[in-house]
């Protein structure tokens, strides 16, 4: 929950990622097995979330997650959250790519036993956007150093920590007075312990854009529509 006593923006992203991980585990396609069997691992490169309504504190809802295709080098995984009456709360789509564990180069998903056909119908119609925005020193908001509590088993900054930093460009009053409609995130690089990140915010075409940079490289970009 966030300061509105509803499912927070970054919390929703975290649940989507956790459910995806559980889904791949149930399919026998998680990183633990793919590391051993195929010298491969998954990276989540993009996620888009469309919000109909954020569930309230203590509200019970159902979350479903399932892959919808196999495009050789990537797959897309849909998530849908529904209330107890079956009404949709949010839908999401995540792009997942398979990489070689040694070289970190793209690896064909078709070289594994990941499903190739008979996928469920997609519940997400929108396509990922190519972000087109600029940031300057005037758009700088704050800095964050990567510490151990922000890292995962890969020894890199966990994806959801980027989302949290992105949401962090907003203040509580804004969150309380604006309801999010859509969020899109692009994970563009890896960050390690003790690296210092700079978070920038700008607005364009009615959207809030966030860019996170480590030194001279961009590692994360995000858009939010309210």
Describe this protein's structure.
- The protein folds into two domains: 103 residues, Thiol Ester Dehydrase, Chain A (Roll); 89 residues, Roll (Thiol Ester Dehydrase, Chain A), CATH 3.10.129.10.
- It is built from four helices and nine strands, in the order ααβββββααββββ.
- It is globular and about 50 Å long.
- Helix 1 packs antiparallel against helix 3.
- Strand 7 and strand 8 form a beta hairpin.
Task: Based on the model shown, name its key terms.
226 residues, alpha+beta, Thiol Ester Dehydrase, Chain A, 2 domains, nine-stranded antiparallel sheet, 9 strands, 18% helix
List the helices and strands and how they pair.
Layout: H1 9-26, H2 31-38, E1 40-51, E2 61-67, E3 74-83, E4 88-100, E5 140-145, H3 159-167, H4 172-177, E6 182-187, E7 196-204, E8 207-214, E9 217-225
Antiparallel strand pairs: 1-4, 1-6, 2-3, 3-4, 5-7, 6-9, 7-8, 8-9
Helix pairs in contact: 1-3
DSSP strand content: 35-45%
Count the beta strands: 9
Strand order of the largest sheet: 2-3-4-1-6-9-8-7-5
Per DSSP, the total helix count is 4
Dominant shape:
globular
> Unreliable stretches, pLDDT < 50, 5 or more residues?
none
Would you list the SSEs in sequence order as H and E?
HHEEEEEHHEEEE
The mean pLDDT is: 97
What share of the residues lie within helices?
Answer: 10-25%
Query: Main sheet?
Result: 9 strands, antiparallel
| CATH-defined architecture of the largest domain | Roll
Distance N to C terminus: 18 Å
Q: Any idea what the radius of gyration is?
A: 18 Å
Domain tally: 2
Q: What structural class should be given to the helix and strand makeup?
A: alpha+beta
Q: Could you name the CATH class of the largest domain?
A: Alpha Beta
CATH topology category name of the largest domain: Thiol Ester Dehydrase, Chain A
CATH superfamily of the largest domain: Hotdog Thioesterase
């Amino acid at each position: 929950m966030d300061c509105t006593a509803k499912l927070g923006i970054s919390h929703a992203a975290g649940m989507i990622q956790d459910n995806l991980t559980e889904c791949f585990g149930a399919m026998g396609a998680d990183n633990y097995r793919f590391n051993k069997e195929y010298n491969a691992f998954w990276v989540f490169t993009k996620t888009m979330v469309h919000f109909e309504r954020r569930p309230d504190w203590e509200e019970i809802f159902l979350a479903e997650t399932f892959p919808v295709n196999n495009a050789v080098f990537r797959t897309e995984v849909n998530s849908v959250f529904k209330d107890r009456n079956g009404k949709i709360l949010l839908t999401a789509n995540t792009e997942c790519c398979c990489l070689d564990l040694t070289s970190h180069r793209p690896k064909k998903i078709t070289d594994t036993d990941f499903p190739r056909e008979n996928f469920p119908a997609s519940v997400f119609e929108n396509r990922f956007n190519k972000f087109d925005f600029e940031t300057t020193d005037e758009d700088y908001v704050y800095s964050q150093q990567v510490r151990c509590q922000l890292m995962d088993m890969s020894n890199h900054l966990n994806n959801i920590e980027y989302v949290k930093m992105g949401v962090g460009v907003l203040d509580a009053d804004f969150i309380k007075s604006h309801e999010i409609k859509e969020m899109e995130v692009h994970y563009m690089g890896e960050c390690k312990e003790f690296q210092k990140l700079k978070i920038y915010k700008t607005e364009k075409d009615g959207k809030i854009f966030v860019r996170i940079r480590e030194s001279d490289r961009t590692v994360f970009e995000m858009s939010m529509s309210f």
